[in-house]
Write a structure and sequence with these properties.
98 residues, mainly alpha, 36% helix
């Protein structure tokens, strides 16, 4: 229903004939319970969302090697105890003589 291309959107008749609408009587009758939300927590989360939307994030067009992820990975590979289990040598295939 939310396609950007209007030609791909459902028509009203198609929506009304969809199983979710036609068979809504089969849905559970109970209401979902919600835990009360602390207004301070809600306000803080909304503030974070608003900041994320309104503050532009600088785009870095530097080489990949200069990214923070690449730096962390390079640092981790220099510390073998953090790199994880050692990789096993790859076995070479052998021919079976018959």
């Amino acid at each position: 229903m939310l396609h950007m291309d209007p030609t791909k959107r459902y028509k009203a008749a198609e929506i009304l004939n969809h199983d979710w609408v036609r068979r809504r009587d089969l849905l559970p009758k109970r209401e979902l319970t919600h835990r009360p939300v602390d207004p301070k927590v809600l306000r803080a989360n909304m503030s974070l969302v608003f900041d994320a939307i309104t503050k532009p994030v600088p785009i870095s067009l530097n080489p990949v090697r200069s990214s923070e992820l690449a730096k962390r990975r390079a640092n981790r590979s220099s510390m073998p105890f953090l790199a994880g289990p050692a990789t096993a040598a790859v076995a070479q295939p052998t021919m079976i003589q018959s």
